[in-house]
Amino acid sequence: MTALVEPHVRYWPSWAATVEDFGDGPMDGSGSWQLAAPPVPSEAGCAAFVQMTELTSSADLDGTRVPSTFSWITAGEGGPDEVIGFLHLRHALDDWLLAVGGHIGYSVRPAARRRGHAGRALDAGLAQARGIGLARVLLTCDVDNEASRRTIVSRGGELEDVREGKERYWIEL
């Protein structure tokens, strides 16, 4: 069953397979944008990635980050520890997140899509948001991302507007 887990190097084999599966595509919710180079799909690369998520979720090193929680999406199909994607819950919104980023970013690796994982991961992310006291959350998706749109709307997302090529949806918790 789809679940969210705390990033940890013990997941490195399936994390590496997930990174490779994304290729040059966006790994929304992963935090990879914070790296100077693409993540290296190895045990050492995974360890560096985990360290980055720990560091950037617990500290605002340069005055540009809000408190956040990084999670990895697991499938349970190839074993309970099979990483298939990423979810990032931002505890607050700055100007950029309010305009185009939102509270929750997530992605499922291409090989694991169309099996309901994104919706179940989003449900778990919404539960995390409730757990930290948020009353409503903003989610965004590219205007041409029909799958993400359907996932957000099926969880109660109400379209507010479109900004910079992103549809902005609010979900009441």
What report would you give on this structure?
This protein has 173 residues and is an alpha+beta fold. The chain has five helices and seven strands, in the order E-H-H-E-E-H-E-H-E-H-E-E. It has helices spanning 12-22, 43-58, 95-101, 117-131, 146-154; strands spanning 3-5, 68-74, 83-90, 104-108, 136-142, 158-163, 166-172. The strands form two sheets. It has a four-stranded antiparallel sheet with strand order 1-2-3-4. Strands 5-7-6 form a three-stranded antiparallel sheet, sandwiched between helices. A hairpin with a 2-residue loop joins strand 6 and strand 7 (166-172). The longest helix is centred in the first third of the chain and has 16 residues, at 43-58. It is globular. The mean pLDDT is 91.
Task: Please render the helix and strand layout as text.
Blueprint: E1 3-5, H1 12-22, H2 43-58, E2 68-74, E3 83-90, H3 95-101, E4 104-108, H4 117-131, E5 136-142, H5 146-154, E6 158-163, E7 166-172
Antiparallel strand pairs: 1-2, 2-3, 3-4, 5-7, 6-7
Helix pairs in contact: 1-2
In summary, what is this structure?
Helices cover 34% and strands 25% of the residues.
Q: How many strands?
A: 7
The radius of gyration over CA amounts to: 15 Å
Largest sheet: 4 strands, antiparallel
Cα(first) to Cα(last) distance is 23 Å
User: Which overall shape is indicated by the principal axes computed on the Cα atoms?
Assistant: globular
**Segments where pLDDT lies below 50 for 5+ residues?**
none
Q: Give, in order, the helices and strands.
A: EHHEEHEHEHEE
Strand order of the largest sheet: 1-2-3-4
What amount of the residues lies in strands? 15-25%
Structural class: alpha+beta
> How many individual helices?
5
- Into which percent range does the helicity of residues fall? 25-40%
- Indicate the mean pLDDT: 91
